[in-house]
Write a structure and sequence with these properties.
Strand content: 35-45%
Distance between the termini: 90 Å
Number of strands: 17
Helix content: 10-25%
Low-confidence stretches: 16-21
Order of helices and strands: HEEEEEEEEEEHEEHEHHEEEE
Length: 293
């Protein structure tokens, strides 16, 4: 009997030991593996990128099940992304646009509320400087100022000269207050249909056969410090990319201290700050303009 009791004790101890080991494995924190930034394997500490667009991907694994994956900027009260998961292994991918150096916190939580964090510092390779200038564009009936702008060299053209330099013109200015649209002070691309009806005659837009550049423009909600801080071409591009507003052939109803981001057909990115508007079809708009590459 003593021998039987001894054997039973050993069996019970082995069973408890096995259960304890198995339970310990189940209670381990989840893991983050195969971390990649824009498709390139990363140690997860930092990345200096050529572009403001980034794709972060990894695999989350847990011995039991992954419960959630959360991604947020350091110091932010809300998450960029939060997904509920119920799998032991799951791939994850998130596309993100940023305009300045930022720390992203990845948090993976399992069903036992154990978690693992990964902090990634993202920054933009400074690259080349954006070129900056101040200029004025006249509306369609302004006798003094040209209405057409070439963003490569900031040349301002009157209509006849613009006709002779069609391929160089990326943006024009018009004022509209007489139609039901009432676009008022507006920056537009040479291919904009509404602008075509305003700049007429032999050198009018309808007769531009060499090139009518399809610049995309959009009003962006940035601060004065964002604008002044956009000294690099990549930062100018980042502001355009970060805006959720769709690009259009015109940005309308402009007023002082508005900001317009644009992308030329040739792939250059720019920002324009509205300094002042002299209303009317013979008025003008004064801009501070930055252009990257």
């Amino acid at each position: 009997m003593k021998k039987m009791a001894y054997l039973l004790s050993l069996t019970l101890i082995a069973s408890l030991s096995f259960f304890s080991c198995d339970n310990a494995e189940d209670n381990e924190a989840p893991t983050i593996t195969e971390l990649k930034i824009n498709g390139v394997a990363s140690d997860g500490s930092s990345a200096e990128l050529k572009d403001s667009k980034v794709t972060i991907s990894f695999t989350a694994t847990d011995n039991d099940k992954v419960a959630s994956i959360d991604l947020k900027e350091e110091g932010a009260s809300t998450s960029l992304d939060n997904q509920k998961i119920d799998k032991s292994t799951t791939p994850y991918s998130f596309d993100y646009n940023f305009t300045k150096a930022v720390k992203l916190i990845i948090t993976v939580v399992d069903n036992d509320d154990k978690s693992v964090n990964k902090i990634i510092t993202l920054s933009i390779d400074p690259g080349v400087n954006a070129t900056t200038t101040s200029l004025s564009l006249g509306a369609q009936d302004d006798p003094a100022n040209g209405s057409f702008l070439g963003t490569t060299d900031f040349a301002v053209y009157k209509q006849a000269d613009a006709f002779a330099n069609q391929a160089k013109v990326d943006i024009l200015y018009f004022y509209d207050a007489t139609t039901t649209t009432a676009y008022n002070a507006s920056l537009a691309a040479p291919n904009d249909e509404f602008a075509t009806g305003l700049f007429t005659g032999t050198s009018g837009l309808a007769n531009w056969k060499t090139k009518r550049n399809a610049t995309m423009l959009k009003k962006v909600a940035i601060s004065a410090s964002d604008f002044s801080g956009a000294v690099k071409a990549v930062t100018v591009k980042a502001i355009y990319d970060a805006s959720t507003v769709s690009g259009s052939s015109k940005a309308t109803k402009l007023a002082a201290n508005d900001y317009v981001a644009f992308k030329t057909e040739a792939g250059k990115y720019g920002l324009a700050k509205v300094v002042a508007v002299a209303t009317g079809v013979a008025g003008s708009i004064t801009l501070d303009v930055k252009v990257g590459k």
